[in-house]
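User: I'm putting together a small comparison set for a docking exercise, and I want a reference complex before I start. The sequence is below, and the ligand is LH4PNPC7. Could you produce the 3D structure with the ligand included, as structure tokens?
Assistant: Of course. I'll restate your input first, then give the structure tokens for the complex.
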Amino acid sequence: MRKTRILLGFMLVLVMICNVCFAATERLYLGSKTPYPYEKTEYTTPPAGYQPAFIYIAGRHGSRNLSSYKYDKAWFDLLTEAEKTGQITKMGKTLKAEVQKIIEFEKDKYGDLSTMGKRELFEIGKRSGENFKSLYATNKPIIADATYVTRSQQSRDGFLEGLKSTGYKGEITISFYEQGRDPYLRPYDIATKYLAYESNGQWNKDVEIFAKNETAKAMSERIFLQLVSPEFLARLDSGELKFTDTKNKTVIKNAATAISALYELYVIGPSLREDGLKDINMKKYFTNDELEMFERIQVAKEYHAQGPGAPDSNNISTNIMAPLVKRMIVEVDTALAKKDKIGVFSFSHAETQIPLVCFLEVGNSHIQYATTEEAVQKWNTADFGPMAGNVQWIVYTAKGKEPLVKMLLLEKEIPFAKALKPFQGTYYKWADVKAYYTKKVENLGITTKSSIDDNMRSLIEKF
Ligand SMILES: O=P(O)(O)O[C@H]1[C@H](OP(=O)(O)O)[C@@H](OP(=O)(O)O)[C@H](O)[C@@H](O)[C@H]1OP(=O)(O)O
């Protein structure tokens, strides 16, 4: 009897440990809304005699609130209509109350950093200060900029607060680019050919077909019929009903778009778990297979619109990063020559971070796949452009020797493009890195001597 009790006790402890482990590594299928997945990492030692001399960080803003009154509005209007006509279920009423709570919480917060997002950026700045102490101890000047969108400026400022908390006292030049005049951090607002591709490219039809696969359709209806009656579903699918955002753009027009919008309300939840909404979790409306499917539908759009896209897309989504990469090259070269500043830190959006990672050929980010189905199996926005995602170039110098550079993705050391051979470990000759990416940008007509106005004009006329 005693032996049985000990065995049962041991098995209970084992189950509890497994649950904790599973919970810690449970996949949440959050795609581009994945909160910053920082994992502590040990950096390799630079070659003898080398010290950090300059840092360029290009990053996305931190975890945020819903970007606008869009998905919550559409679902609240849908459930209000269903309730009015007696076509809402008990679970639909639960969801309606949850959506109402989200709307009340999000008032005046749409688009801004969440508490988690502010913490993410503060910690990235603090770790930069701690990891490169000898560089920041020089207290030489730095530049920090952002886009015209508040969350990117909030991220810039959070990063700087974290850096200053480690003792950095140098001169900081803060700025942001005006809307429509930002070829570096928001080239996708300016690039004419890209804008046409993004709105009307063939990929839109490919993704729509992918999103309407039989499995996704069945999943959408299963989830939807938890919340409203079959009569309501029939009304929606007949085209009688449409639910829009505040700009009257249709958000929900059938079961598939309804569940994609519900997925968007699910994925923003983890970014808000340090705010008042932590008790709302839309995961209960989905199975894991369904979450994986709707993550893949979101990733399919991002793969084509921000990532490498199809082989016949001619890299139109990532080529628009040429002006930013040109700026990165020029800023490093200038800092090496003038020794006038030790850092440039730029904060923007997923639409910048993802194509930048692809343009730099980080890992397999730039690989193009023949079909959308294959792409979403092998490429995921969460790997390259989570909330607060960042690419860092750390430049090292040594007396009488040529400068070296290493690259970090999400603060982890990663190789440069496969065509480049390292000098040692993850350290590359700056001359090799500069030559490789200069060739890429100049082949696109963006010379390292071009000005920001030249780049604006190039994006309008050629990209
Ligand atoms: O579908 P939402 O509103 O979330 O899309 C956002 C973009 O978020 P993302 O889908 O890229 O995660 C947002 O990018 P972010 O990096 O700033 O979060 C973008 O700025 C915002 O305009 C929305 O993009 P949309 O294409 O205009 O819907």
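The two ends are 77 Å apart (CA to CA). The chain has a mean pLDDT of 95.
User: Thanks, that's exactly what I needed.
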